[in-house]
């Protein structure tokens, strides 16, 4: 189910047109923008594993990124230069694959492309209310997530953790009560709250390793503007 998030749709449109400096920031920090793909990096992107035609990599297994932890937008931008984006976990099969990666490599947490639609362009959208249930989507492809309080269609479990800082189901926006920062980004945490590997809403400024997944949109864009480039 695709829905048109106005601001992000504008970003996507800008990628496909010459008006590249019209891309709007998705963060509240001024002067931060989505990065454009780098054709050479796209052609040489790390392909550590693949699933249903998409390539993926974990930053911890890429020598030049292995020691880096980044906030959510920097994470997206690292991926986007490779024609990828932060991973989107649309199916249980894909989710299980990423959970296994985290478990087998003892990774404490990663960023995904999951985002709460709580920025400019998300106002007056009754279909997204209440936001903590209906307001989450995958920013890599703007696909809406299942309601957070339900098992997604075709899944055997609800990937959101049943606990967290406030000992409440996720998403709980817990940091907002502490310092006024919204937990608008989706991280997979590895047993941080004695809850196994599970989804949590986390404030986007936290620095974490990343998993990147092929972006069809960026690959198609680079393919169409770089004839003959092998991607
Ligand atoms: Ca995906
Ligand atoms: Ca939380």
TrEMBL record:
SUPFAM superfamilies documented for this protein: C-type lectin-like
Keyword DNA damage attached: no
Signal peptide coordinates: 1-16
Region (Disordered): 149-171
Alphabetical keyword list: Disulfide bond, Signal
Domain C-type lectin per the UniProt entry, residue ranges: 51-213
InterPro entries the UniProt entry points to: C-type_lectin-like (IPR001304), C-type_lectin-like/link_sf (IPR016186), C-type_lectin_CS (IPR018378), CTDL_fold (IPR016187)
UniProt-recorded name of the protein: C-type lectin domain-containing protein
């Amino acid at each position: 189910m695709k829905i048109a998030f106005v601001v992000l749709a504008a970003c996507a449109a800008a990628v496909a047109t010459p008006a590249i400096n019209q891309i709007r920031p998705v963060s509240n920090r001024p002067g931060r923008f989505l990065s454009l793909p780098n054709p050479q990096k796209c052609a040489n992107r790390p392909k550590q594993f693949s699933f249903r035609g998409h390539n993926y990599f974990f930053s911890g297994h890429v020598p030049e990124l292995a020691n880096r932890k980044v906030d959510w937008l920097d994470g997206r931008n690292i991926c986007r230069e490779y024609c990828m984006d932060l991973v989107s976990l649309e199916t249980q099969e894909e989710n299980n694959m990423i959970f296994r990666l985290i478990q087998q490599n003892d990774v404490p947490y990663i960023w995904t492309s999951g985002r709460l639609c709580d920025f400019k362009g998300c106002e007056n959208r009754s279909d997204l209310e209440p936001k903590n249930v209906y307001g989450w989507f995958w920013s890599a492809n703007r696909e809406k997530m299942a309601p957070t309080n339900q098992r997604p269609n075709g899944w055997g479990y609800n990937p959101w953790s049943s606990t967290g800082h406030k000992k409440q189901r996720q998403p709980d926006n817990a940091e907002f009560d502490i310092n006024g920062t919204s937990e608008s980004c989706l991280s997979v945490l590895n047993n941080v709250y004695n809850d196994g590997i599970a989804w949590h809403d986390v404030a986007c400024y936290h620095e974490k390793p990343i998993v990147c997944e092929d972006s069809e949109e960026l690959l198609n864009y680079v393919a169409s503007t770089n004839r003959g480039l092998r991607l």
